[in-house]
Amino acid sequence: MENQGSGFEECFDNGIGYLCCSDYAGCALFWCQAGVCRRFCRRDCASEETGGPARAGIDGISGAGQRGKRVLSALGEDELSKLEDQIYKTVTYLYQTREEAVRVKNEFAHNLSNIAHQIKTPITAISLSVQTMGSGSAEKEGTEQIQRQLMRLTHLEEALLLLARLDAGTLVLKREETDVYTLLMLAADNLQEIFAQSEVSVDISELGEVKVHVDLDWTMEAVMNLMKNCAEHNAGGCVHCAYGQNPLYTKILIWDEGAGFDRKDLPHLFERFYRGKNAREGGIGIGLALAKELIGRQNGTIRAKNLPEGGACFEIRIYRH
């Protein structure tokens, strides 16, 4: 910047903001960014005419020219430390913000691609069914296929709307004291048709009164997704449920008697639209992701594991504080 009068003004650019030194009204030090300048300190000191520009930031201070060094040295260690800390926090925050924005953008694009693919599959199936409809048994089979695909589209629509509400923070959770045994029984009752189709039985042990502070309806939705996953990979078997409580959290276990999870799938089970090695036909890979989101919003966690004796197990922890 241009010199004016007998003083000087010099800005050190680091690509994000400017560290400006000025002695127009006594030595002052400013951090300028996005058109806003902050004055960190001001001391009465004589201007120096030697030295050259330096980069801003922590590295810029250490590499400043003689003029910048002398101005900074006049500020004292306390003021310089505060300035370094402030600049460091600002630069770190900007980088983190940028990285988060890039991540969200990439995730949004990835989800859009998955959504397009998921919607295309049932539409293609419906189109083929319509083409084969014409007479007798072919018409009946085509109608049934259309009904199945329409149900899949409806489920996809509902799941995407729920995810959108979760992402936007507009889903209101009405948390209240809820009995865990009642929660599990209600979830199982809503899945009776699916259990019957898979010839799966349900074992829910009553282990005394245990209360959790949750939204009953949405927590039941999460538990249903876990139970349904166990039933789909455990035809002819049994889905077991148990629970307990300690001073830190309430634990709910849901497990089956099937083959368990593929080891390569375990790190990705709760990712949106992820379909594992043994995923059933017609699934959209969104149920476990929804369950994790719903439990996570209520101070809880879900993790999946394989049992030593065989079978897949989901463990829910809902923390008390």
What would you say this structure looks like, in words?
It is built from eight helices and eleven strands. The protein has 321 residues and is of the alpha+beta class. The protein has a five-stranded mixed beta sheet with strand order 6-8-9-11-10, covered by helices on one side. Strands 1-2-3-4 form a four-stranded antiparallel beta sheet, covered by helices on one side. A two-stranded antiparallel sheet has the order 5-7. Helix 4 packs parallel to helix 8 and helix 5 (180-189) packs across helix 7. The longest helix is centred in the first third of the chain and has 56 residues, at 77-132. The radius of gyration is 31 Å and the shape is globular. The model is unreliable at 1-19, 21-31, 33-37 and 39-65 (pLDDT under 50).
Mind sketching the topology for me?
Elements: E1 9-13, E2 18-22, E3 27-33, E4 36-43, H1 57-62, H2 66-73, H3 77-132, H4 136-168, E5 176-179, H5 180-189, H6 192-198, E6 201-204, E7 211-214, H7 216-232, E8 238-245, E9 249-255, H8 287-296, E10 300-306, E11 312-319
Parallel strand pairs: 6-8
Antiparallel strand pairs: 1-2, 2-3, 3-4, 5-7, 8-9, 9-11, 10-11
Helix pairs in contact: 3-4, 4-8, 5-7, 7-8
